[in-house]
Amino acid sequence: MQTIKQEVMWSKFVANKFLRKMLGSNNIVADFPNSTETMLELEETSSTSSDQASLISSRKYITGDQGKHKIFVGSWNVGGVAPPDDLNMEDWLCTHTDPADIYVLGYFRFQEVVPLNAGNIVLGFENSKICSRWNSLIREALNNSISKHVQEDKVGEFYKVHPLKNHSIASLDKSSNNFPHCFDCITSKQMVGIFITVWVRNDLLPYIQHPSVSCVGCGIMGCLGNKGSVSVRFCLHETSFCFVCSHLASGGKEGDEKNRNANATEILTRTRFSRGPLRNLPRKIVDHDQVIWLGDFNYRIYLPDTTTRSLVQKKEWNILLERDQLKAELMKGHVFQGWREGIIEFAPTYKYYQNSQVYYGCDQKRKGEKKRAPAWCDRIIWYGEGLKQREYSRGESGLSDHRPVRAIFVAEIQVPSDSRRLGSSFTGRFRCLKDHLEERFNEKISCNVDRTGFYSE
Asked: 14 in a domain, yes or no?
């Protein structure tokens, strides 16, 4: 018995290490990445006291005028359905009525395109074709002012999402002049069935620094990528942002919420970002100035199925939300302490018949189906100061068995006055280096000796 237990533990250990090695590849695509630092760093070592001190000291020089930028965040469990070529994204993205400065979109469940067999889960299979289709639809919706009939081949080549390579600020400005008021993809990353893509208005590109991605698998054996998160970090001027895109454990049985809580805790604990060139950037999720978490959280409602369906039919959202698992677990302090969510004034987003307004199990003509009660599985929450939510709503596309959700935030950004005057992020980065060196010069240099006798920070 002991031998079997050891073999299982060893298998889990090997799978865990292997998956993290696969997820740790720099297989991230972007239009104009402007950082040469390592994009992925999935070490599990915790931040030392010196790292935390550097983080605190780095925020002391965050001074100057406050700017405001609008951020659109969207989450959609697409149910394994590939997007049709004529899918209209503009209404959901509000590009005509209320365009944002930054778009962060998360998609989940590519089962029909990425079969969830053991090989694909373990290897962290990535399907660039389906990701490119979603990115093409997003690009067309955000940049619809560009004529589709003018130099289609050249425009298509210019907008191709390239592997990471260096681009100078000069090339960014030149590209921006050619295509004013357009959006470019700064990060796009898939882990099995989880996909996040980040788009920024191109005149903000020179002020985006230190992009980094961290993947955490929470699925089979507690480490595989069929469940888990893909998180993105970057700095806009002097404000650090983190966006967590996750798919938590499923299940409608009593006690399944504990698995979801455990997934969230794992993501918060194991997510690590690169320290940056000065080693003073936040590494953990909650260490960032502003954090937004989006995804299929999978939390259900603590009520009998028949009662839930009856209340949904009557649109008694307040009564249902009183028994919502996520809100209940948060109130009990079991998960997401300190996080906030906007007021929900829309119908549950799960589970529908495809291309229908009827919830699964409510069609009397379809007998023998497993009934699943409606629930607000798809959520967007946030953490930190300086974020104000202007909208929290859902879309009505029937493409999937889930409805997409969106949130629009206004983020207060710390912009150094000299950076604004010169119109370049170079001065801000020079100030950061200057202050950092001055502080180091005035401090006593201390080193710790580990058990091996080698010096470490």
From this structure: no
What tens digit of pLDDT does each residue of 250-306 get? Answer: 999 989 999 999 999 999 999 999 998 888 999 999 999 999 999 999 999 999 999
- Mean pLDDT, to the nearest integer, of 386-412? 96
Query: Quick check: is 22 in a domain?
Result: no
Per the structure, the count of domains in the chain is: 1
Residue 418 to residues 65, 182, 236: CA-CA distances in angstroms?
Answer: 10, 26, 15
DSSP 213-267: EEEEE-SGGGT-TTSEEEEEEEEETTEEEEEEEEE-----STTHHHHHHHHHHHH
| Partners of residue 449 on adjacent β-strands | 455
Tokens coding 195 = 């996909």
> What string of H, E and C letters represents the secondary structure of 262-301?
HHHHHHHHHCCCCCCCCCCCCCCHHHCCEEEEEEECCCCE
Residues pairing with 219 in the sheet: none
**What's the whole-model pTM score?**
0.75
DSSP string, 116-152: --HHHHHHT---HHHHHHHHHHHHHHHTTTS-TTSSH
For residue 367, what are the contacts with CB-CB under 8 A and spacing of at least 6? Answer: none
Q: Which domain holds residue 128?
A: 28-45+65-415
Spatial contact of 159 and 139, defined as CB atoms under 8 Å apart: yes
Domain presence at residue 15: no
What residue type is 16 in one-letter code?
N
Is 315 within the bounds of a domain? yes
Q: How far is CA 4 from CA 1, 7, 11, 122, 255, in A?
A: 5, 5, 11, 21, 28
Angle made by CA atoms 420, 422, 428, in degrees to the nearest 5: 70
The CATH number covering residue 173 comes to 3.60.10.10
Interatomic CA distance for residues 196 and 30, integer angstroms: 12
